[in-house]
Structure formats: C-alpha cells, structure tokens
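User: Hi! Is it possible to get a structure for several chains at once, not just one? Here's what I have:
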Amino acid sequence: MAQVDRQHWDVVVVGAGGAGLRAAIEARERGARTAVICKSLFGKAHTVMAEGGIAASMGNVNEGDNWQVHFRDTMRGGKFLNQWRMAELHAKEAPDRVWELETWGALFDRTPDGRISQRNFGGHEYPRLAHVGDRTGLELIRTLQQKIVQLQQQDFKEFGDYEARLKVFQECTVTRVLKDGEKVSGTFCYERESGRFFVLEAPAVVLATGGIGKSFKTTSNSWEYTGDGHALALLAGAPLLNMEFVQFHPTGMVWPPSVKGILVTESVRGDGGVLRNSDGKRFMFDYVPDVFKEKYAETEAEADRWYDDPDHNRRPPELLPRDEVARAINAEVKAGRGSPHGGVFLDVSTRMPAEKIKRRLPSMYHQFKELADVDITAEPMEVGPTCHYVMGGVAVDSDTAATVGVPGLYAAGEVAGGMHGSNRLGGNSLSDLLVFGRRAGLHAAEHAARATVRPAVDDGQIDAAAAEALAPFHAEDGAENPYTLHQELQQTMNDLVGIIRREGEMQQALGKLRALRVRAARAGVEGHRQFNPGWHLALDLRNMLLVSECVAKAALERTESRGGHTREDCPAMERDWRPVNLVCHPVDPAPADPAADRIRLVRQRTEPIRPDLLALFEKEELVKYLAEEELYE
Amino acid sequence: MTTYDARFRIWRGDADGGELRDFTVEVHDGEVVLDIVHRLQATQAADLAVRWNCKAGKCGSCSAEINGRPRLMCMTRMSTFSREETITVTPLRAFPVVRDLVTDVSFNYAKAREVPAFVPPQGLAPGEYRMQQVDVDRSQEFRKCIECFLCQDTCHVVRDHEENKAAFAGPRFLMRVAELDMHPLDAAEAEGLDRKRTAQEDHGLGYCNITKCCTEVCPEGIKITDNALIPLKERAVDRKYDPLVWLGSKISRRRD
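Assistant: Yes, the chains can be modeled jointly so their relative placement is included. Here is the combined structure:
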C-alpha cells in the first residue's frame, strides 16, 4: 500500500480563487476546521485577472437599480436558460457581499458622495459594477486573502498556531475526490514542489476550481484552467450541466502572436470605446438581435448621447451581451472587413482625454504599451474573440451549492453550472463567486457538523489514485509528449468546437478526442517528481480530455443557437429548446478501453420558472423566449 | 513574421546546487522571455521548473532575474535584447531555490501574517462606509501590488543579508503597513494599535535607507519609497528619532 500522509479536516476547499476563499472564510467562521488547496501560490488565482468589476444592484449611481432589474438583466443575458433560483439569490445577495468586502479592508473607487462607484457594462441596464480601475479581481483576491490572514492571526492568538483552524496548502493539486460508498470522504493530493502524495480526510469538499479555457488554443485563461473540478466531480459520480455553453469574450488581444487571447476588459466599451471595421464603420448597429431591438440605440448620435443622458437615450450596441458582440466581430472578420491582424478596431482614444484613460483603464494602457507598442490614448486597439468562461458546470442545488448524488460534495464559482444560463454578463462572475462561494462554505460546514460518524477513507482508493498519478513515469517505449498532446487538443477544440459550430466538424472533433484519449494513456515524462511541469501537464490532460468530450457532445446535441453556443447549421434560437438542460453523466463503471466514451448525455426538463419571477417581465418579451407549452402553464 | 535563434543561459538545479545551462531556441515576433521558457519546456527540457500564471503582468508569479535584473518574465519582451546577446535567466537570489527557476518564497507569507489586519470602525454597518476618492487614492496605489516580490528580492537589506530577514518585513510589507495606516477608516488606533510605532519596532522600518531599489524594479510602477516608506518614516518620527527621515526629506523630490 502507498504510504501517504493523512490529515483530518472538516471541510476541504479545492481552489483558492474568489469562490474558494469566500467558501473557506464562511466555513471557518461557522466553526469548521477548513483546508484550502490550490495549484498556484496563495493570492495568484485566476480571479486576479478579472478587470471590470462586481455586479451588484446597490443603486449608488442610478437609484432606479434594484435586485429585480439585475435579475431581469441576468436572465436576458443567459437567454432564459439560467437556473432561475440561482439568478434570484445572486441578484438579492450581491450588494451585501460587496459591502462586506469593505469591512475587510477593500478600497473601491468612490462616487462624489463617498459611496462605492459603479460603472456601465454590457447587458446591465444601469451602472452596476463596483470596481477599482480595471484591476477589480486583484482587489477581490487580495481582500479575501487578507481576511484569511486575519482569521489566522486570531487563531495564532488563541492557539499559538496560525493554521489551527484554517490552512492553505499552496502549490498542491487534487487528482481524486475519495468516497465512502456514496459519500465524500476526502481528497487525494500531490505537492507540486516535492511530488509527495497526501490525503486530506473530510466529510465535505467544496470544488472551486474555475474553468476549462486551457482546452482551447486562443484563451484569456491561465494554465490553471484545465477543468479540474469539472473532471473531479464527474469522476466522483456527479453530473455536469449544459457544457456546450462556452463564452468567447469579444475582445482579446490579437497581436503580437504571443499575447493572442489576453483579455481586453469590457470596461473599455463601458467607458465609451467603440468598435469599427476596416471601413471605419461602427458595425454593431447592424447586429442588434430582435429580442434586444427596443433597448439599443439605432444611430450613432443617439448612442453617443446615452453616455451623458442615459434616461432619455438608448444604449450603444457595443454594450450588447458578450455572445452577440463576439459573433458580430467574427462575422466582420470573415466578411473581409477585419483589421490587419485578423481582429477589428476598438477605440477609446476619441472618447476621453489621455489622462482620464490612464486613470480609468490603467492596466489596459500598460498592457498595450508594454506588450504591443500601442498607445491606447492615441490609437485604436486590435481585438478579436477569445475563449473566456464556461457557463456549463457541475449541476448544483441552487440554495446549497450541493452537487447531485454525491453527499458532501459542493461546487461554487465558474466550476458550477446553471447560474448564467447560456451566456454570462460581464461583472456577474465576481458577484457569483462571492454569493455562491459563501453559500457553499456555509452548507459544507453544516454538512460536516452533522457528520457525527466520519466517512472512512478506503486504502484501495488511495492506492489506485497513486498508481494513476505515477503512470506517466512508467510509460513504455513510444511515450507521447504531453505538451504535443495538449497543443493538438487545443487546436482541435479551437477549430472544431469553437465560436461557430457545425455538425460535421463536431463529429470530427469527437473522433479526434477519442484518438487523443488513446495517446494520452501513453503520455510519458522525464525527470523526477520534484516540481516537474511535464508531469503536472500529463495529469491535467485527463481532465481536459474529459471536459472537452462533454463540450463537444453537448454542442452536437443542441440543435439551435443560444448564448455561448452558435451553430452555423442551426442559426436560430429555438423556443422549444428553452426548457431543456443537457446533463453529462459519467459512464458507469469507467471503461478500461481509453477509446471508449467517458460520458453519456441525458436531456432533462428545467424546473418551471416561479410565477412571481416571470411577472417581472412583460408578456411580449416572454413570448420571444419561452416554449409554447410553458406559456400555457 | 520574422524568426531567429536566440542563445539562452538558464540556471538548472535544486537546493543541493546547480549550474547555468546553454540553450539555443527559436524566437518569433513580439515574444516575451516567458514564451521562450515555455518553448524550451515543450521542445528541449520538459521538466524545466518555472512558476507562472496569468502571462499578462497581473498575478506576479513569473519573477526571475534576467541578465541579473529582477523582472517578470511575462513582461520582458525579447525585442529589448539584441539578437546576438546571450540572455541569462536565474532564480530570485534573495530566496532559497526549490528547483530551476522556482524559489521558496515562504518568507513573504510569514511576513504578511505579522502585519495586523484592517480594523473595521465601530458603529458603521456594512454599506455605511463613506470615503472620498482623494482620500483612498494613496492606499489604492499600494493595493495595485501584485506580490511578485521583486522588491523583496532586490532590497539590499535582505538580498545578501540573510541575518536581517527575521527583523525586517521588506518593502512590500512595510508598504502594507503604510497602506493600512493611510486607510481613511482603519480603526487600529482606537483599538490601541499604533501602526507607525509597529512599523519601526516590529517590522524593521529603520533598516530601510531609502535607496529606492524597490521602486525601480516594481512592475506596477508603485512609488514604494517616496509614497509609502518615507511618509511612514515621517509619521513614525514623533515616536522615534530616525536620521534617515531627515536625510530623506532633503534628497527626495516627491509630490504631495
């Protein structure tokens, strides 16, 4: 049997981004001894890259805002596929979660009367995003990190040990969630620095691992985004929801090649940036879909007036939800009206004086100046779509963040599905992290407190997990290079299951994924276990391949276009598809043949939207979204 | 697109020792040093250890010394070097090596824990905080810090003086004390915590002799010395005489 260090905790949180840290704070404050485990250093999680802000209807800038308006915007952005109870809780609780950050030391930008300032963003009816310049994610992560340190300081005073009740295992990776029968019993982990294995035994585990972008070639996501939590859930028996919905952010950098995909914040458009094609035309006016016709300006003059007088003018179409803008840019480039490096032009230089741009968008100024030799205060940027976010994720209970069918397993943040429906609005991610991170931590702590008999960790599972993790060191002759496999996977997903999808290409993708699975079973690495990035990647490949299979299968199944899922061969949004969730279940038991499918797809009817929430919309609007039979219910 | 072969010299080894190894590697237009390290991993040295994350200058993970200068690898463009130059990449010198370009930065996390946290004001409920932008500007500047620890690496108080590490928090965490001290609503003083005094007595502010090395390497352009450390020294001066404050007020040209 493998000799591994075993520790006991009440709650284990996997991931130390916004959702993970917020969950850990809540669990610890509810009395649970809590361990956080994360792949990077503490404070470096992908959340630091969030730029624009946290959406919360505090109404500091426009008093007309309230949770109902935020709820409506979120449902419209997600094309009504959102798990409505999550959207409701999110809209109601987001302001409290933001204000709470101030009591932990966060310093947001201010309104003239000293309150938290709020900025405009795509799909949000009112200025709603609490922000700090364009580095809001950094402020969020640092505030949560410092709150955790404060709790550790309390423990140091009380017990003489900073880590008595809350410990961060940094630069460690979880490869398996362990179970005792149906129930969660802990996690199998390795330390990246030493390669040493260890087990955290706990009755409750919160997955907060973020997204899957590293399966695509052009992405704004960091190396961590390998779909770990999605895969851990599936491997533990918990299904995933609506994995076909992947958000391509409309504005990523396109040049130079080494920075292709790096995010250009939506705040550029929120603060007045306009999109133009190579003819100099503001093309977004040609791309306002019917469902949004009444809410967006029809002329440049009206759009320009909106910045100063939003009550009497309609919003510029640059501020449509992200899926609409990304598709429009894609279409312009395809029609031969793109910029020299295959994007379009985004220009904020004519809207504001240079000094104001540097103050409101400091990291964008810095990023373009340093990495592309472009001065955004004087010239336009070149931008194009980049894989940014996955709306699909682990199926969860709206109120408790509990996964389906695996007692003790919770999921929050990007790894959880449902909240954003088919498309997420900008700013709704940071608020999602806080609202559902807190809920996951709360319910995980309660679950742990109820577990009077601790689930037992099975030695056989530990041995199997250790053998699985060591396999890349024992690859036979003809071992595959994990970097090569990763590059081929990214190319496949980018080209065949990307922003615009076609049936034949997705079938081709499934074939390629099958072949990659077979080759990945032979992935081999050189060197030893100490901080070996080739080995780490070989282990992450399992997760990326599993998640990619989910995305491709679900995308092939959904024969319509909605939000972050666009089918060239099925271009319309079909009302009949509105009440349909596509759920990915693991094939049980897992097949030994690497070529065999790992998941099976099940159609599931969505829960009917509560009548008082439906009543927040005009009938004429609902008719555009809801299926025929839903209208009679 | 133009492509050429660059010469790299990269330190490889672990806590027991190591050496500089030579590599010849392809470079394309617009690339940064981190791209080249990644290409080496993918083609010549799969187990080359490097820490990185966002590759956009926002997370502060990929700190190293490039030709002896502490820098972020993701923000160092290859075009800043001539094609003939051999580019040397070594791990941060002030911290113990774990492997290759990865160092043990736990010193910084230990120091972070020694700075008492923000103290919320009594009697103000969440949502009732009111602060003017002009009053939060300065602390916001310090909160731009991405914790790359380049300032901690370059600061000569600890760079070659391991023995000073116990008593000295380093520029990053002295700046954290300044940030909290300048926070308009921090209620530390009401709780009997004098941050200025602790800067001097607990965090080793007196060791800093304002040579501004930290400011020079800060990838966020934070004026650590002028805006955080010198004002902190001035605020601490009532409590304790520090000859460098007098000197600093003579030689630094700072805006108020």
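Chain B has two domains: 3-103, 106-251. The longest helix of chain B spans residues 224-236.

User: Great, thank you!
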